[in-house]
Design brief:
The chain is mainly α and 223 residues long. The longest helix has 24 residues. The radius of gyration is 22 Å and the shape is elongated. The chain has eleven helices and two strands, in the order αααββαααααααα. Strand 1 and strand 2 form a beta hairpin. Helix 6 runs parallel beside helix 10, helix 6 packs antiparallel against helix 11 and helix 8 runs antiparallel to helix 9. It starts with a helix and ends with a helix. A two-stranded antiparallel sheet has the order 1-2. This is FadR/GntR family transcriptional regulator. InterPro entries: GntR_C, TF_FadR/GntR_C, Tscrpt_reg_HTH_GntR, WH-like_DNA-bd_sf, WH_DNA-bd_sf. Pfam families: FCD, GntR. Keywords: DNA-binding, Transcription, Transcription regulation.
């Protein structure tokens, strides 16, 4: 494993230094192993590991390439790791969302276009006043993803996308067990949307905080 780690660090060094850039094809295995002073086997293991976290793209019959290194691609690994969360860590995920998502919503209030606001409004209108819990949660995910994308920060968007998964089950359970949870969520969505339309960053931040905190408070009381 130590030899593989060394190989990973050497390839990483080539990418960080700019010797290999996004989209570049790596030299042939024998050439790269010789250049880096590695065995072909350790190099092969390093390439396999880096492909799993979307640093490298192994194309059968074509070679190995550096990926685009876009944040959304690289942070897919976060989503994979997050899937292994335990139920007792859901509150911690919600706490992180409560820190990041209101900030992203405030940023979106200053950047979002009228067309984007109208699209979010149409999404809520389509959902109606009495959706099923599953429909509401699916809409909730899309609604907040659309807002965060409007913040203009792709890293923040990818982070929050990866963090939203663990809280989905908690939101469904809340909708099924807490009286007025569906109506409350719809009201909070409308309040966030109104703040976005008014370009009121602080109101948008506050309502996003209330929205996440309400789920967090309910979950804390049930654990």
């Amino acid at each position: 494993m130590a030899v593989t780690d060394e190989a990973i660090e050497k390839i990483k060094g080539m990418i960080v230094s700019g010797a290999l850039r996004p989209g570049d094809r790596l030299p042939k295995e024998s050439e790269l192993a010789s250049e880096l002073g590695l065995s072909r086997n350790s190099l092969r293991e390093a390439v396999r590991a880096l492909s799993l976290i979307r640093i490298l793209d192994v194309r059968q019959g074509d070679g190995t390439y550096v990926t685009s290194l876009d944040p959304q691609l690289l942070l897919e690994a976060l989503s994979f790791v997050v899937d292994f969360h335990r139920d007792d860590t859901v509150l911690e995920f919600l706490a992180v969302r409560r820190i990041l998502e209101p900030a992203a919503t405030a940023m979106a209030a200053l950047r979002i276009s009228e067309q984007q606001v109208d699209a979010l409004s149409a999404q809520l209108d389509k959902l109606g006043d009495s959706p099923s819990v599953e429909e509401l949660v699916a809409c909730d995910l899309d609604f907040h993803r659309g807002i965060v994308q409007s913040s203009g920060n792709s890293v923040l968007c990818s982070l929050l996308d990866g963090l939203s998964g663990p809280t989905t089950r908690a939101r469904i359970w809340r909708g099924l067990t807490q009286e007025d949870a569906v109506a409350g969520t719809l009201r909070e969505h409308r309040a966030i949307l109104a703040a976005l339309r008014d370009r009121d960053a602080e109101a948008a931040r506050s309502w996003a905080t209330v929205h996440i905190a309400s789920v967090e408070q309910w979950l804390r009381s049930t654990l």
